[in-house]
């Protein structure tokens, strides 16, 4: 095949409901879990960590001797939580952003009947995608567990089932702190060793069948690609056409690179560009005290949401907030179809999601003020259903940022490699890349 021939990439197939028999190494982990042990299992992408975790969750849920509230299914991010039918670990824990001291968090949780009961009834806590959970937060959770459960045992005696790959995405560094705290991995947490013991490493890759490709991915994971690997990949370079129009997301190490990529892609699209300006004002912290200007600026600086967002019809966008649990979640990717006012959307019987600060999992009714406004909002086709996302403008609304962002940020979406037949990679050395 001539390397310049365009290749049409079909949309990813819906997840197959295939019956999977756990491999021997996967089964061993399940046995340890059933014996009541805390486990941390890891392994390269495609070694069946998520499948194993889902099987563990299914088995525990079907155990008639367990109360449903004894099992908490969580992950470090909303989309990862959704993938296993759970929530974020923050949401389970009831800690908000989890920035306060462990003592304050623990005290507040113990004072809340709902949260106290939740922590006390949980016997088994699952956390997926552990690589993105900060070590400082892990220590805070461990302290909260002991404090709220009145126990001296590691993690208050809870069984932990943790999965993820520390070679994948790291935690987001905390820039709200005076000196900008560097991110630490969960395995750096002081309590990690006490809670987890030795990791179990899954080694058999199921996602890809091609051994040469598995070898490349494994070397890339360690950051040690050879010239032969690079040549093998370069040979495959050719134009690609995505049948559903959704391109793989790209990750860049630096924000400036993301911005350059986004504006280049946006500039290449025809049509009128509409720019949305964020309306930001300082809100209140968890103690109902007004956030000062400096803290508000630091918080805004950390936001993924940009102060000005320019969009055009045809732009590929990503939702960056959990709006409705289970369908409109952080990470959902779609294409901007057209610009509509809320009235036009409602007349067309489209679902209008108005994110709420307090209860992001619910769709709130479209109130009169939003309905009457002539503001055009982006109607976005997301994988499941068309939805228009607007920000309700009210005095309570502290950050009025549009909920969509143009994405094109991923350098090497190697995970998609086997399933979607696309590998994006760049071989130039990247400055400031930490891993
Ligand atoms: N025991 C098994 N038998 C057959 N196929 C399996 C088995 N375990 C996993 N798979 C398949 O391997 C693929 C990758 O599995 P999974 O997504 O669980 O891997 P992962 O380790 O979680 O990957 P990542 O780190 O990228 O999230 C899936 O298509 C899954 O169906």
UniProtKB/TrEMBL annotation:
Q: Which domain of life is it from?
A: Eukaryota
* UniProt key word Nucleotide-binding: yes
Give one GO term, molecular function aspect: 5'-3' DNA helicase activity
Q: Which reaction does it catalyse?
A: ATP + H2O = ADP + phosphate + H(+)
Task: Please give the biological process terms from Gene Ontology that the record holds.
Answer: DNA recombination; DNA repair; telomere maintenance
Q: Which class of enzymes does this protein belong to?
A: isomerase
* Protein name (record): ATP-dependent DNA helicase
Protein source organism: Mycena venus
